[in-house]
Input
Amino acid sequence: MDAEKKIGITFSGDLTPSQIAQIIVEKNRVNPEIELMKSADKYFSGHNETIEKKKRVYYDKNRTPIENPFASNARVKSKFLRMLVQQKQDYAFAKTFVMKLSTDEQEEINLSENEYGKAWKKFLDDSLFKLSYTLSGQAVNHGIAWAYPWIDEKGKLMLKDVPSTLIYPVWKDRQHTQLDRLIYNYSVEAYRGSVNPTVEEYAEYWSDTERILFSVNDGYKEIPLAEDSSGNPFHSHMISGDGEGVSWGRIPFICFKGTDDEAPLLSFVREQVDSYDELSSRSVDGLVDDLDPILVVKGISPDVSDIIEAREIAKMTRTISLEDDGSANYIECKTNVDGNLKSKEDLRRDIIKFGYGVDYEDARFGGNPNQLVIKSLYQNMDTYCDGLERHFQDFINDFKYFFDKWYEFTGQGSFEESEKYRILVKLDRSMMINQSAQIDDCVKLANTGVSKKTQLEFNPVVQDVELEEERLKEEEKESSKENSLFNFPEKENEEEKENPEEGKKPDEKEGEEK
Output
């Protein structure tokens, strides 16, 4: 069956978890998607696989390739993938994103307004802001990133990233939104009474209700999980207040996709990067090989040893002896440097364009570009990050289930009560801006009916809108204290006006003696 027609994988009921784990692991050992992720890691680190295999060869009379040890064999490797990944990572997640709550009754709730929001705010400050930056880079580079929620021995909710190359998911649906089961396949270096380590491979089988650990080296034999002081397997259960092991009810792995089709960024630019590096390497080879001209000798034996000897004599003495009918001359070879530079520049622009990046060498960045020009230069990356932001929202929505479970199990509130809240995240993108022009625009907004909060959000010098609002309130209070003209007495209560006798003590009423 064609790969395009395969929309899922199913297992018969008589297969054991051990057999299912073995099927999934062996299937993914030759999975081209996993191999592409591994290649992306190499390109990200500057190890272009194609260029690292580059050789300079010549062919004998039988057309057999023979490596030439005397020719230059430069391997120039670019760092385009690293640049393109980090551009998106920094653009979308370098600044802390904004998170707000809402319910059916209330459209917008700040995190500091209730206990549930405060719990989220603390988790954001402690873990999620930092981890989201890491996950975004993996999502772009691998096409998908994975995070694993768990609770430590102190009852604190934890979330850590897991390498995408080690996660083999089985999905319930074609859109890859619901996990059916999952294998976490990893290896450890073990020292057991010897200085020489052994590599032990494991496969963790996860379903909605169980986690089973298998030793791949021992033929997928089930082995015990490490246990905590209460006898509960580490990270496989949640620990409620009474110490009982409670299942999450879902597989505790959450994906953060880079694109809908989970395509690594390398798949968009690999051919262009390979061509750029090949051209760069061959340009160096040409320049190095062409430092010495080619000596052409007529009237000498074609034997290789005679040719080498004549060449060495010419190099040492700057002369050469020939028969009467012989001749010798040098031919200079010149590499077409200008043509190579133009081809490389065309490839560079294609790499940035197809990789949804920003070309900071664009001439329009020079001078003092207005905000409209800057937005047009960022449009390609903005398009990619629009999808990235949507997938991050999906990630947060999925994580909310585990957050709400933890919130209930730690006695902070009920799961049903937490479910009524919806979460909205908004990325604060790090676009280059013309600050002076944007501040001028803020001034123009002052008398247009736009709320002060919107003006603060639009102002480039304001980093935290809520903090800035508090500062403005404090300044207004201080200003009113300093200027007594604005210290008006409080308006009298209408009831007191109508019944002036009410509210007075008996000894204060008119005509009444003490």
Remarks:
- Residues 228-243 have pLDDT under 50 and may be disordered.
- Residues 371-409 form the longest helix (39 residues).
- The longest strand covers residues 179-190.
